[in-house]
């Protein structure tokens, strides 16, 4: 099955949105969730989630705490902060503006 | 505020970064394992599932680094890593590190030592509140060629009332006799206006200052004393206040004790180490009730500007005041004299005399430091070629060029910082000893300290030094040609051509800098030598001077030494008694001005009338500016005792006393200056003071350098002490004197005549002459020492480069020898290499030396700044040292055994 690379710059948006929808998640769940919801179209290089998560931690969009998985393994769970929610809105409106513009350009006769 | 929180998160990451790395590791491992498990369950083989999971995850090491970098600390971590690695490298070659650290330590230590003196004397403001408002007021009469002639009491009042100044205070440095304690003592006294301490803004440690508004006539009956005097003469008595002391037979109440370390802002050490302060408004007995305008008896004055006024503004207003006074009193200020009043920052007055010497010293020591740097750079380069392989391998393994350079720079900076720390440590340990070496004549010596400015200087110097000597090897390493280096490394490194070029340039620089320093030292040495060997015109051998002083009671009626006639019996008795002392052959008496070359009394002479304004008979006083001349009062034997020959006329005799018209002996220069082409004998002149008598020239003596070592023709006049009288006395003795016993013997004799007189200042005339050279001697010795160090370093530098060249070319030399080259031609080849470097360095250095020598013209005597002998001599010396330094490796080159050399690789 063919998988598309995600457009550059949207990784933050995908992570923010995923976390915003489902509360707490660890890295593997985030990667799976993005794939599943996009019907396996969007393929994230899974490891690149982690540098992105570090940057988001630094910026204070997410917090992390250790917990246990259903399989009783130790995992780090990420959760959106208030700043993260705000950032999600910012990224969303930015994305929609860009997509809208691109759509208009494409559909223009 | 967001950035603050972000910074806090970053810092917490920095502190917990071990934990952070472990967490990241664990979470990535979990991810891989979960993925692997999922793939396995979907039917993959274990190994395939692991491989697929890894593929989907990406480069884990790279991602871990990326996550780490996300926090932005990698540069800091790199530095920490460089420092750790650098320390390890330095520890591994302790000998090399020790040599470098010690070289730098000496350089930084010496530079910082000189800087701490420059900082205290030149950079720091004077230790008084709002020091920028403090000025020194200097009156010039450029028409008569006179500078800083002092002011009169009415002029002081004019300045006080001008509204330009908060306070103006004359400062009259004088001596005084302290009696009443066990032994009469001479004390250094400053007579100032009552506002003096308020003007400076200082307070005593005990008691109070003078009331600045007290304008009563005469001297106030109170004094302040210095901390030193309090402890010495009064044993630090805590109940000293309100006690009475007797100065010059008058009683004064002690109202305050100044704190330790308080120095008066004076030009010489004598003027700064004041022991007693007295105050007066400069009118009323013992001074005249209405002092005339043209009697400039207030030798100096200091002032505090009104707040907010700059010196430039104040100067403009003073100029206006001067112009209007000249209009108002044309009789007192003839236009030709061109009276002007200059405001000079007070600090300038204190440090003016030493500025040039200090800057010269700082420059010299800075050059030495620079040369030391270049030497260390050379050492590092040599080592870098030994480490060429390490660098090449690291680069081949992917180390970024930038990281390698920063690694090498870190090593250099570590070396220089250690050097700086060791240098400072040496300085701390030897501080007391070094301060001992500095002559007392240096102003603000007690302010010299290793404060934070000095520490900052040392730190900056270390960093700059490290950057300078680290840059060459670091850049060199950055240019490594990988393949070449790796190939070379396998067959014994010879260093790149680029590196050899860098090292040559460094040696050339070193020679150039050394030459500059040596030319400076050479010129100073020649100046000093010339001064040491000038024909003095008098004979200082086996002469001693001892000083005493007659009191000036405030009430002249109680003065038993008021007139020359009253003093004469005392003079004669002293001469008679001193003549009986063991070893004494000749005795003469004079005032302070008669002591040849006595620098310490330079400014005191003015007070005791050594500075003599006069007019010549037959010249119009209105059109002719009164001239100033140095005058001494002496007894008849003075000239014979000092060996100054009479050229014409006669010397004084015992009949020249106050009952006959005054006579004078002048020197040749005086005759030539004031009566050119005429016979000075029989000519008359007089002081410009009212009612002063005419003085007839009766004799002319040869010129002698009693006034200044550097100038041969200073006009001088001498008068008979029995006619003029004198209170600041010098007893001159010639003979086979026991210099240790004389002071006590003379004291006994003087006090047998008058037990209240202090006897002090015993010194051989040779010591006085040599003291006149002390500042020059110090700067010459220091610059000379620095120059020798520079020469040594430059020699070592060229030795290093040439021996390196020889060892790198052992192979080639071996082949040459095997093919039948004569050892002489090999020797010539090596020496030519060294000579080329030395000559190139000398050529560059000569240009620098010409510039520097012109800047130091003011410090030279008798030699031109472009003195060819010095320049040629120094160049030859430097080239000679270079050849010598090359000769050792050259000998090694011709002893190369062709067999060994060829088998070497």
Question: TL;DR?
Answer:
The complex is a heterodimer of chains A (109) and B (905). Chain A has 109 residues and is an alpha+beta fold.
Task: Name the descriptors.
heterodimer; A: 109 residues; alpha+beta; Arc Repressor Mutant, subunit A; 3-stranded antiparallel beta sheet; two-stranded parallel ribbon; 5 strands; B: 905 residues; 6-stranded mixed β-barrel; 6-stranded mixed beta barrel; 21 strands; 15% strand; elongated
Could you characterize what this model shows?
The complex is a heterodimer of chains A (109) and B (905). With 109 residues, chain A is α+β, with helices and mostly antiparallel strands. Chain A has four helices and five strands, in the order βαβαβαββα. Chain B has four domains: 2-72, no CATH class; 142-338, no CATH class; 355-532 and 774-903, no CATH class; 551-756, no CATH class. Chain B has a six-stranded mixed barrel with strand order 2-3-8-5-7-6. In chain B, strands 13-14-19-16-18-17 form a six-stranded mixed barrel. Chain B has a four-stranded antiparallel beta sheet with strand order 12-20-11-21. Chain B is 53% helix and 15% strand. At the A-B interface, helix 2, helix 3 and strand 5 of A face helix 1, helix 2 and helix 4 of B.
């Amino acid at each position: 099955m063919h998988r598309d690379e995600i457009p550059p710059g949207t990784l933050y948006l995908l992570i923010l949105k995923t976390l915003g929808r489902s509360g707490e998640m660890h890295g593997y769940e985030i990667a799976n969730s993005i794939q599943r919801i996009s019907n396996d179209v969007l393929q994230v290089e899974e490891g690149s989630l982690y540098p992105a998560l570090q940057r988001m931690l630094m910026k204070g969009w997410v917090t992390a705490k250790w917990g246990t998985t259903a399989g009783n393994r130790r995992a780090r769970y990420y959760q959106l902060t208030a700043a993260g929610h705000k950032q999600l809105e910012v990224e969303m409106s930015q994305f929609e503006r860009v997509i809208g513009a691109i759509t208009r350009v494409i559909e223009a006769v | 505020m967001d950035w603050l929180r972000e910074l806090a998160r970053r810092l917490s990451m920095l502190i917990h970064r071990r934990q952070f790395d472990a967490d990241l590791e664990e979470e990535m491992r979990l991810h891989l394992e979960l993925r692997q498990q999922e793939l396995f369950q979907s039917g993959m083989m274990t190994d395939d599932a692991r491989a697929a999971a890894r593929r989907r995850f990406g480069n884990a090491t790279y991602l871990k680094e990326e996550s780490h970098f996300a926090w932005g600390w990698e540069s800091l971590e790199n530095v920490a890593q460089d420092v750790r690695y650098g320390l390890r490298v330095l520890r591994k070659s302790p000998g090399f590190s020790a040599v470098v650290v010690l070289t730098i330590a000496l350089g930084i230590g010496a530079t910082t030592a000189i800087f701490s003196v420059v900082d205290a004397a030149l950079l720091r403001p004077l230790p008084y509140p709002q020091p920028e408002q403090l000025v020194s007021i200097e009156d010039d009469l450029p028409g008569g060629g006179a500078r800083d002639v002092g002011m009169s009491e009415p002029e002081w009042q004019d300045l006080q009332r001008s509204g330009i100044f908060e306070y103006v205070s004359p400062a009259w440095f004088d001596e005084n006799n302290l009696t009443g304690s066990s032994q009469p003592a001479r004390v250094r006294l400053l007579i100032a206006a009552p506002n003096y301490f308020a003007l400076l803004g200082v307070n005593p440690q005990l008691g109070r200052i003078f009331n600045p508004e007290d304008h009563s006539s005469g001297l106030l009956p109170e004094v302040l004393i210095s901390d030193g005097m309090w402890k010495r003469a009064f044993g630090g008595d805590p109940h000293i206040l309100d006690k009475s002391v007797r100065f010059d037979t008058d009683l004064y109440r002690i109202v305050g004790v100044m704190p330790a370390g308080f120095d008066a802002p004076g030009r010489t050490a004598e003027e700064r180490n004041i022991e007693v302060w007295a105050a007066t408004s400069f009118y009323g007995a013992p001074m005249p009730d209405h002092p005339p305008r043209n009697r400039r008896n207030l030798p100096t004055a200091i002032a505090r500007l009104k707040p907010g006024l700059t010196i430039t503004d104040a100067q403009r207003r003073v100029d206006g005041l001067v112009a209007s006074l000249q209009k108002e009193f044309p009789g007192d200020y003839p236009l030709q004299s061109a009276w002007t009043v200059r405001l000079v920052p007070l600090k300038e007055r204190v440090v003016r005399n030493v500025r040039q010497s200090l800057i010269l010293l700082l420059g010299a020591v800075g050059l030495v430091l620079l040369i030391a740097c270049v030497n260390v750079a050379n050492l590092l380069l040599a080592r870098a070629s030994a480490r060429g392989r390490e660098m090449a391998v690291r680069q081949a393994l992917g180390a970024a060029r930038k990281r390698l350079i920063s690694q090498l720079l870190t090593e250099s900076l570590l070396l220089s910082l250690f050097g700086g720390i060791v240098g400072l440590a040496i300085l701390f340990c030897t501080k007391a000893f070094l301060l001992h070496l500095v002559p007392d004549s240096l102003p603000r010596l007690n302010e010299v300290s290793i404060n934070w400015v000095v520490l900052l200087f040392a730190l900056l110097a270390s960093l700059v030094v490290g950057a300078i000597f680290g840059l060459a090897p670091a850049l060199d390493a950055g240019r490594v040609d990988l393949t070449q280096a790796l190939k070379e490394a396998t067959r014994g490194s010879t260093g790149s051509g680029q590196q050899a070029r860098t090292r040559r340039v460094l040696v050339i620089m070193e020679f150039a800098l050394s030459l500059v320093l040596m030319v400076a030292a050479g010129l100073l040495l020649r100046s000093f030598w010339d001064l040491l060997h000038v024909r003095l015109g008098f004979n200082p051998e086996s002469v001693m001077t001892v000083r005493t002083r007659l009191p000036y009671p405030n009430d002249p009626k109680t003065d038993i030494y008021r007139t020359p006639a009253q003093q004469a019996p005392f003079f004669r008795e002293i001469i008679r008694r001193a003549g009986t002392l063991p070893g004494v052959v000749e005795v003469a008496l004079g005032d302070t001005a008669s002591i040849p070359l006595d620098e310490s009394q330079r400014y005191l002479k003015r007070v005791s009338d050594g500075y003599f304004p006069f007019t010549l008979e037959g010249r119009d006083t209105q059109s002719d500016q009164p001239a100033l001349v140095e005058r001494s009062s002496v007894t008849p034997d003075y000239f014979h005792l000092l060996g100054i020959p009479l050229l014409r006329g006669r010397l004084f005799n015992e009949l020249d006393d106050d009952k006959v018209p005054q006579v004078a002996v002048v020197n040749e220069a005086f005759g030539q200056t004031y009566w050119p082409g005429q016979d000075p004998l029989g000519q008359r002149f007089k002081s410009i003071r009212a009612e002063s008598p005419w003085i007839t020239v009766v004799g002319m003596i040869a010129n002698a350098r009693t006034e200044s070592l550097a100038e041969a023709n200073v006009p001088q006049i001498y008068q008979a002490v029995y006619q003029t009288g004198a209170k600041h006395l010098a007893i001159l003795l010639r003979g086979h004197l026991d210099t240790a016993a004389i002071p006590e013997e003379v004291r006994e004799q003087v006090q047998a005549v008058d037990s209240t007189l202090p006897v002090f200042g015993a010194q051989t005339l040779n010591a006085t002459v040599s003291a006149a050279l002390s500042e020059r001697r110090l700067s010459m010795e220091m610059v000379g020492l620095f120059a020798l160090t520079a020469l040594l370093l430059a020699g070592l530098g060229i030795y290093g480069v040439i021996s390196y060249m020889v060892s790198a070319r052992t192979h080639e030399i071996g082949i040459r020898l095997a093919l039948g080259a004569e050892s002489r031609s090999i020797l010539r080849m090596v020496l030519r290499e060294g000579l080329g470097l030395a000559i190139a360095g000398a050529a560059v250095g000569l240009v620098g030396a010409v510039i520097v020598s012109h800047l130091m013209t003011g410090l030279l005597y008798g030699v031109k700044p472009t003195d060819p002998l010095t320049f040629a001599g120094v160049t030859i010396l430097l080239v000679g040292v270079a050849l010598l330094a090359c000769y050792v490796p050259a000998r090694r080159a011709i002893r190369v055994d062709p067999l060994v050399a060829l088998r070497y690789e």
